[in-house]
Structures are given as C-alpha cells and as structure tokens.
Amino acid sequence: MAKRIDISGLTAYYGTHKAIEDISMTVEPRSVTAFIGPSGCGKSTFLRTLNRMHEVTVGGRVEGKVMLDDENLYGSGVDPVSVRRTVGMVFQRPNPFPTMSIFENVAAGLKLNGSYKKSELGHVVEKSLKGANLWNEVKDRLNKPGAGLSGGQQQRLCIARAIAVEPDVLLMDEPCSALDPISTLAIEDLIGELKERFTIVIVTHNMQQAARVSDRTAFFNLAGVGQPGKLIEIDETERIFSNPSVQATEDYISGRFG
Length: 258
Ligand SMILES: Nc1ncnc2c1ncn2[C@@H]1O[C@H](COP(=O)(O)OP(=O)(O)OP(=O)(O)O)[C@@H](O)[C@H]1O
Ligand SMILES: [Mg+2]
Known about the structure:
Layout: E1 5-14, E2 17-27, E3 32-36, H1 43-49, E4 60-68, E5 71-72, H2 80-86, E6 87-90, H3 102-113, H4 118-131, H5 135-138, H6 151-164, E7 169-173, H7 181-194, E8 199-203, H8 207-213, E9 216-222, E10 229-236, H9 237-242, H10 247-253
Parallel strand pairs: 3-8, 3-9, 6-7, 7-8
Antiparallel strand pairs: 1-2, 1-4, 4-5, 9-10
Helix pairs in contact: 3-4, 3-6, 4-6, 6-7
Organism: Streptomyces iranensis
Domain ABC transporter: 5-247
Keywords: ATP-binding, Nucleotide-binding, Translocase, Transport
C-alpha cells in the first residue's frame, strides 16, 4: 500500500562531515517525486536516509524524523531490516544477483523475508515480472542467469525484485543513467504505471525525465564545496519547470550551473 512520507529536520553525516542539513518535506503517496540538484548536493544520501540505508555506511548518522504514515522509521525499536522491506530501492547500475537465475532473482527478496508459501512463489514471480513489464521477454527463459539480460532488462528485473515483496515505497537513484534511450523510456513508462500502487521517489540528472515522470519535484543545492546540501524548494513539477520560486532553481533547470 502506498504511504505518505513526512520528513522533518533531517540531517545526515558521514563521520564529522555534514552531507545534508535540516531537510523537511512531504512525499505524497501514489505519485512520483523527483529529486534534482547538482552533483554532491546530497540527493543519494537523502534517499538512503528514507530506508535506513545511510547508517550502513561507516560513520553514517542521521538526526531528525522520517514518518511513514504514522510510523517513525527512526523510532526506538524499529527494525532497519523491516524498514528496507517496506521501502524498496533500485540503484543506478542494474545489480541482479549474478549467480542467480531470472526466477531466483525475483524470488530472492521473498525468500529472505521468509514471507511466502512455496506454492505461491511462481505466481508472485510472474506477477512481479508482469508488473515490471518484463514477463513477455523472459517467460521462456526464467531459469537462465539474470546477468544474461540487456542492461534495460536487468534494470526491470531489479524493479521486479523490488516490487515482489510489495513495498510501500520505491526509491530509485538515477535508475536510467546506465541505459539507452529506448530502455529509458520503457522504465519511465513503467514508473508511470507503478505510481498507481507505490509512493515513488526518483533521483535524476535528466531534467526532461523529471518533467516527464514526476508529479512533484524537489530541488537541492549546496552553498559551496564542503557545505551541506539543503532542500531549496519542492513544488508541483509543472510549477518548478515553468515558474520556480527561487532563482537558483531556475538557474539549475535552465542549465546555467550544475
Ligand atoms: N560513503 C561516503 N563517505 C563519505 N562521504 C560521502 C560518502 N558518500 C557521499 N559522501 C559525501 O556526501 C555528500 C553528498 O553526496 P551524495 O552522493 O549524496 O550526492 P549526490 O547529490 O547524490 O551527487 P551525485 O549527483 O553526484 O550522485 C558529498 O559531499 C559526498 O562527498
Ligand atoms: Mg547520487
């Protein structure tokens, strides 16, 4: 079930380095929110704080609050592993498990959770591959290695793996940056379909992509090298790209810096 994310006063560190500072925003359910901003402004860091992956990095530390509907993901007693099941992630480079078949790749998350019945596995794998618009291309080779697919297919395989466990939120960090234009459009179409069921956040350097796929866009920036990244503004995508409130946003989207 898609859930709303409500972030308040979020600051994240790598050791003593403050990477992002005091970010507050709401991410609406059943919609796509795009994160844009220059390299190093903390988009990936921020994304990883939303499923408690930031703290996996040595020295990674977070202050602030991330509410998923009415649960604080940083509340005491919250299990980070279950958070990562609820808030799934798709990475920049497709990362199917190299030694596993297509079928096993999709089933992997379910098996880790132990939250499946063996008799249902085939059904869930098929449903997830269909959900990722990959089924027709792989249904006759489910036992072949996932690594044998094209880059675009591998990325859809990773999306199938992520949605198989029925998360509430899907985080995507530049999911198309390693893909050709056709595969990119396939993923963008897919994102448009998935937002009916999930809350989606996508980091992208591609302004056209942000404009095409997202409902809301958040612009992040940093004052200088070594300074923490900050949220500059978040608004309807149409508004950010036509009439942003802040000059720096306009400069960025029109390619004047970054
Ligand atoms: N593992 C790490 N250890 C230490 N510092 C890190 C680490 N990862 C990122 N940083 C620092 O945190 C800041 C934000 O980096 P981050 O990768 O979140 O930016 P980004 O906006 O995703 O950039 P890009 O657009 O290039 O992907 C940068 O100053 C970066 O050097
Ligand atoms: Mg990044």
